[in-house]
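User: Good morning. I'm curious how phosphoric acid mono(formamide)ester would be positioned relative to this chain. Could you predict the structure with it bound?
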Amino acid sequence: MNPQLTQDGRLRHLLTLDGLPRAILTQILDTAESFMDVGEREVKKVPLLRGKSIFNLFFEPSTRTRTTFEIAAKRLSADVVNLNIATSSQSKGEAILDTVDNLAAMHADMFVVRHSQSGAAHFIARHVAPHISVVNAGDGRHAHPTQGLLDMFTIRRYKGAFHNLTVAIVGDVLHSRVARSQIHALTTLGVPEVRVIGPKTLLPAGVEQMGVKVYHDMAAGLAGCDVVIMLRLQNERMRGARLPSAQEYFKFFGLTPEKLALAKPDAIVMHPGPMNRGVEIDSEVADGPQSVILPQVTYGIAVRMAVMAMLAGGATA
Ligand code: CP
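Assistant: Good morning! Here's the predicted structure, ligand included:
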């Protein structure tokens, strides 16, 4: 039994894409599609989560995820509280579950949690009362399920389907929760060829067991790709030097127009952000015609609306 699902198979928490059935992933993508036009309306709101209280608990920095969760919750008419961790009682040593219990006592219905420790969202989900849902907004190097979902939504929008694609994930897969969530989603949704490309020091040992092909050379790895996903070097999670220098890394693994030309001519370029221009990606590519990096951010709102609406038990625009 998947702890993220109720006994009748509905979404109860969203903690990881590992083990979530294809039907649930597809339902989230379809529901997000139905929310796409809400952002175009004069009144950008639907009443699905009216009266619900959603708490954003971001123990790690974020620009895109925190903001788009807030916008998504507001578009669903929920009341949103962004806990400022720096000025909260966490800074006085309060335990995370005490913080959660106190917010639950304020009648929280949902917690959106980002934390540097892998497993933090699972820990909270095991603790909360049955009526409270937990969404993992990124935990350590483990999972970032809504990023994985918005990436799948982006791929489906630009490529139409998953069954005929070759997708490459390039860079620091070792420290990337995003890459893990993407790999689970891509393989579950039926992408026949998922590649990871990077230096040996930045690919996890045994990553092939996740159903991916491993490349250490950009020319071979990018050949014939439909989708190229670039990852940031996650220096904050690295222990010790894994690379000679950022310049050396860019030379071999940075996505330049010349390297992108090795993929299919209509390949799209994605990046979860934040980007480090000149380290993993050249500005000419990041801002070029094949880049869908900013649409990814926009789609994140509809995808997060879909997740929150499904967790709350209602899901139509
Ligand atoms: N992609 C992503 O998680 O970005 P933020 O860290 O800005 O939320």
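Residues 293-311 form the longest helix (19 residues). The mean pLDDT is 95.
Let me know if you'd like a different ligand tried.
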